[in-house]
Every structure is written in structure tokens, then in C-alpha cells.
Design goal:
8-stranded mixed beta sheet; globular
């Protein structure tokens, strides 16, 4: 699962999306500050397909399916498996008609060594911004707008750390994903394949990021210590 990502260069990330879409997007709102540790329930800038073209919307991370609305305790789903999202009631409507782009600078996964979980930061080469393949639900009554991120099988870089990875879109694939009409089956499968590992890089970071309340630059600091098993190697 992808339950943490970094949005520490928001203007650059949004500019990358705008360039890919050949569109002029409105400037980020004042609340869209750099955030090094985005997690569930955070309201984040997401690019959706509006009636007149791409637009930036503030949506909460954790998709609330239509059938959860009105319940006192709503389920919030951060991720959807790309392989099954097209058929599950919670996601299939959004996959068909509400595909969005989630601008980002990287994502975190944790490797368990012994009894300790060690965080790793994954980015594109040269830390270029990108977008996750997202889906979203609009606000309704007392339910705010929400989004989720699609996941896929891990590539060779991610697989030693985790058994899933988010679907990452590049400048070439972003405009193909964004939309309000169903995708052809083959196109959907192609767009949700894992990104080639040679386009990415990875490094261990401070366990400071493991606390979801920590959102500052220290999340990217080098680890304070090495896992014992790795240090022995």
C-alpha cells in the first residue's frame, strides 16, 4: 500500500503536470504548503478533469465510496488495486468517470528488519516531480471531496521493500490517464503497469517520517542508524 508520500516542492510538481497536459492551471491555493509527509485525511491539491478542462481541486486523501456517505463512521480508502478497481463497486465508477492526477515528489515504503520498520524514500531519477494515477469522489452534503491512489505490482526497485507500489504517471502518460470517459481495457492495463525501475531511485531516510504528525524537512534526513542486519553486511 501507498499510505505516505511527499509533496515538498508543490509549485514544481504542479508545473510538471501543467506541462504534461499543455494546460494553464490556476496557482496553488495558500493552504497548499510544502508537506514532506502526506498521509490519510490530508487535503491535497489534485488535478481533475473539469467541464472546461483540467483544474486543481482540494481533496482529502482517503476515498469515501458513494455507499459510505451518510454513515456516522465512513470508511476512507487510500488505495485501490489497479487489477481489481475496474470491477469493485467502491472504485469502478470513479475509474470510469473520475480519473485524476495526484502531483507528488516521491513516496515512502517501510522495510521490516527484525522488529523495526525502516523507511525508504522512492523518487524519480534526479527527483523529478510526477503524478500518481488517482480516482476521486466529489463532495456531497457533509461529505467532502476525496481521492485514492491506484497501486500495482512492484518493479525490481520496490519489490525488496514492499509487495505493491503506486501507479506513477510521467509526462507522456498523464494526459492519457486524466479524464471523464471510460478507458479502453488495453489502455487501462498499459497505464497501470509498474514504472520501469531504471527511471527511479531509492534511499533510506530517518525514522522521523514514521510519525504521521511530522511533516517537515527532517523526514528526508539520512537514517540515524543502520538496521543491525544491514550494518553487519
Amino acid at each position: 500500500m501507498c499510505v505516505r508520500y511527499t509533496f515538498h516542492q508543490p509549485d514544481e510538481a504542479l508545473a510538471t503536470v501543467a506541462k504534461a497536459l499543455a494546460a494553464k492551471l490556476a496557482p496553488l491555493p495558500d493552504w497548499a504548503k510544502p508537506k514532506f509527509n502526506v498521509t490519510l485525511t490530508h487535503v491535497m491539491p489534485v488535478v481533475v478533469a473539469g467541464v472546461d478542462g483540467p483544474e486543481v481541486a482540494g481533496l482529502g486523501w482517503g476515498l469515501v465510496p458513494f455507499y459510505e456517505r451518510g454513515r456516522p463512521e465512513r470508511r476512507m480508502l487510500p488505495n485501490a488495486k489497479a487489477e481489481t478497481a475496474v470491477s469493485l463497486p467502491a472504485f469502478k465508477g470513479a475509474v470510469a468517470r473520475r480519473r485524476c492526477l495526484v502531483p507528488a515528489n516521491g513516496f515512502y515504503e517501510w522495510q521490516t528488519v527484525g522488529k523495526v520498520k525502516w523507511p525508504h524514500l522512492f523518487t524519480l531519477k534526479h527527483e523529478e516531480p510526477f503524478a500518481f494515477a488517482g480516482i476521486w469522489e466529489p463532495p456531497e452534503d457533509d461529505t467532502p471531496g476525496t481521492f485514492g491512489i491506484l497501486t500495482t505490482a512492484p518493479n525490481a526497485l520496490v519489490s525488496p521493500i514492499h509487495n505493491r507500489m503506486p501507479v506513477i504517471l510521467t509526462g507522456e502518460t498523464m494526459p492519457r490517464w486524466l479524464g471523464r470517459a471510460p478507458l479502453a481495457e488495453e489502455e487501462y492495463r498499459t497505464l497501470t503497469l509498474p514504472l520501469a525501475p531504471e527511471l527511479m531511485q531509492e534511499r533510506r531516510v530517518s525514522r522521523y517520517v514514521s510519525n504521521s504528525r511530522h511533516e517537515g524537512p527532517q523526514c528526508h534526513s539520512p537514517p540515524e542508524e543502520e538496521p543491525p542486519e544491514l550494518a553487519l553486511g
